[in-house]
Design brief:
Elements (H helix, E strand, L loop, with lengths): L3 E5 L4 H12 L5 E5 L4 H11 L6 E4 L2 E4 L1 H9 L3 H5 L3
Parallel strand pairs: 1-2
Antiparallel strand pairs: 1-3, 3-4
């Protein structure tokens, strides 16, 4: 399974929903980057994504986006293939 990285905060309900969705699809490990604990990581997130909001999900090298993007990708059938290793 591809590596999953999620930029998040400690109290973000959309981050929790994204984590639940990923785990329901078999993801066992999510590397969480808590940008509220480390402001430098917020700058990193904004540079990588061009966005300010959390969550921001990466699967492998692919930036999926936020929870709405992740959910839409799943509904369209694109999440599971992205989770498979290349």
């Amino acid at each position: 399974m591809n590596n999953v990285v999620m930029y998040s905060t400690q109290v973000c309900p959309y981050c929790q929903m994204a984590e639940r969705l990923l785990k329901s699809r078999g993801v066992q490990s999510i590397e969480k980057v808590l940008i509220d604990k480390d402001p430098a990581r917020r700058d990193e997130m904004m540079t990588r994504t061009g966005r300010r909001t959390v969550p921001q999900v990466f699967i492998g090298d692919t930036h999926v986006g936020g929870y709405d993007d992740l959910s839409a990708l799943d509904r369209a059938g694109g999440l599971m293939p992205l989770l498979e290793p290349a």
